[in-house]
Amino acid sequence: MKRWFEPLATAWGGVVTHKLRSILTMLGIVIGVGAVITLMSVGRGAQAQILTNIQSMGSNLISIRSGAFTFGGVRGAATNTLTMEDAEAISKQVPYISAVASSYSSNLQLVVGGKNTNAQVSGVTSEYMSINNMNLASGALFSEQDYQRGAKVAILGSEVKETLFGNANPIGQQMRMGTIIVHVIGVFQSKGAMFGSPDDAIFIPLAAMQQAVSQPRTAQGGRVVSSISLTVSDQEHADYVKKEITSLLRTRHRLSAGADDDFRIMSMEEIASTLSEAMGTMTLLLGAIAAISLLVGGIGVMNIMLVSVLERTREIGIRKALGARERDIWIQFLIEAAFLTFAGGIIGVIAGWGVSYLISKMGIISTLVTADIVVLAVSVSIGIGLFFGFYPAWNASRLNPIEALRAE
Amino acid sequence: MIRLQGITKVYPMGNRELEVLRGVNLKIKKGELVAIMGPSGSGKTTLLNLIGCLDKPTSGSYYLEGREVSQLSSGELAQVRGQKIGFVFQTFNLLPRLSALANVELGLRYAGGGDRSQALEALAKVGLSERANHRPTELSGGEQQRVAIARALVKNPPLILADEPTGNLDSRSGEEVISILTSLHAEQGITLILITHDANIAHHCQRIINIKDGQVVSEKKV
After folding, report:
1. pLDDT tens digits, one per residue of B46-88
2. Which end of chain B is more exposed for a tag (fewer CB within 10 A), N or C?
């Protein structure tokens, strides 16, 4: 007990004697640890947010889009390869599917009131809303009749509604969309901000879309759609369903054995794990950037410890004359350095937590402080104290007692 | 208690070597009170540092309580200092940010421990009980040196070494310090070696050893 208490008390004495210096040294660590906590909590928060958003789309969802996976490479394959006929064939021939919907999207010019603007318009079939978990914030969904007759009615994504109508109630309002005029009958709840979010789109029945723009046809005469979405009756069969759809579409599109797919199938589960992985990497990257400031703080600690050893040369000489071994001196300075960084680490955790709470509270981005981040930051800060305190403490312990006693 | 045989100490000085001690032979019995005198640069402080295990001789052997200590490692020497030797310096060498009591306790810490009551007792012996919580800067020079003496004796060492203990004091405080040291020697039988320039102080001792040019030139009983 006493063996540990005495070096701690001595270290505390060293810290208190130079209050301002200790505080400034600690500040480097406080900022470093605070930055690690804040940035990593932002990363973790974004990760959690995206996963929630994806889950809100429905985890049984599988979506099929035209085109192959190409990144930057030039590819000759036609981009519009999926057709309504494909959707019907999938619905009839692939097992374990509970619903299939197709949509055709295009960027159209809108005239609302006096304003001219552009928006993504999606013509959808009747199962689309339930498959994609679209929930109304106000108004009504399309009726079965609307879908069949191609009624000129629209439901707005939350962002589009915000842009076009602000706080005004859009329901019952008219807007011109290409060559047709539609009535707004509903507004969807937000799905959360992300790339390609349905919040940014306007939905109308596919039959109405066909009147607004001419739906292209493939060489075989199929009516082109932008995407086909479907739900699997049981998550377990998702892989089997994907395989079945792939072989069916390859046959229908008459792809030879060696040719790449001219469509992409993605399940929400895959998207979730891919994004989650990407966000994890981003979190680490943010943490690493913040860790640079921690490193700078550590160098500050080393600097101060070297000065401190120099200043207290005589004290070291006195302690050695009284019988202190090299180890005693070494431990004393090491504990002092670790104490500075540990205290800085604790304050940094509190500060970082506070900042990330504020960021969340002000609605900039949602943050999440997890236990592993805190443990990591605190242990890294102690580690920094030990690492950067090592050399100064070693220097101190190696001083010759006679020369040290002679120092001013 | 102390036996030095053919002790030499050589310091490298650039290209040349500086021979500070040239074959010192010396015996000091347990419970003796010895003064070392000599002109500046004669090597008396170097000798005291060697006796105090703060330094190692270049050659020769040093037996402290029968144990050859001249070849010990620095850690072993530290242990010998902690357990056997108390130092009193000319410049007091108290830690300025610690109270008198804490300074005395420091003397126990590296000697294997002890408790506060021992430190208070040592302060009482030098007549500073009321000043226990004062810092060195709040004490007079004589009082500071008495705290340093308390620090040296708190661990009950068999040997106390004092390097010009009155060198920084006015004559009245100096006398006080010397009378404390001599009475400690008389009451507790501590072996006491002190360096001094002052012949009056030397005459309080039982034996005076004169050093010149790194050698013992004369010894005389008082």
Report:
1. 999 999 999 999 999 999 999 999 999 999 999 999 999 999 9
2. C
In a domain, B198, yes or no: yes
- Looking at CA atoms only, how far is residue B107 from chain A in angstroms? 6
State the total domains in chain B: 1
**Could you tell me if residue B47 is inside a domain?**
no
Q: What is the 3-state secondary structure (H, E, C) of A95-162?
A: CCEEEEEEEEEEEEEEEECCEEEEEEEEEECCCHHHHCCCCEEEECCCCHHHHHHCCCEEEECHHHHH
Residues of chain A in Cβ contact (below 8 Å) with chain B: 2, 6, 13, 17, 314-315, 317-328, 401-402, 405
Can you give the residue range of the structural domain that contains B84?
31-41+74-221
CB contact under 8 A, B74 and A326: yes
Distance from CA of B110 to the nearest CA of A (A): 5
Chain centre distance of CA A136:
26
pLDDT tens readout for residues A152-192: 999 999 888 888 888 889 999 999 888 889 999 999 998 77
> Do the domain assignments include residue B58?
no
- What number of CA atoms fall less than 13 Å from residue A391's CA on the CB side? 11
Instruction: Write out residues in chain A with pLDDT < 70, as ranges.
Output: 1-4, 59, 68-79, 193-196
Q: Say yes or no for a CB contact (<8 Å) between A322 and B109.
A: yes
- Asked if A276 and A55 count as a contact pair (C-beta separation under 8 A), the reply is no
B174 lies in some domain: yes
Place of tokens 């300075």: A333
ipTM of the complex: 0.94
Q: Which chain B residue has its CA at the smallest distance from A324's CA?
A: B110
Domain CATH number, residue B108: 3.40.50.300
Domain locations in chain A? Answer: 2-53+274-406, 68-261
Per the structure block, which two tokens stand in for B85? 């030797």
Q: Nearest CA of chain B to the CA of A35: how many Å?
A: 36
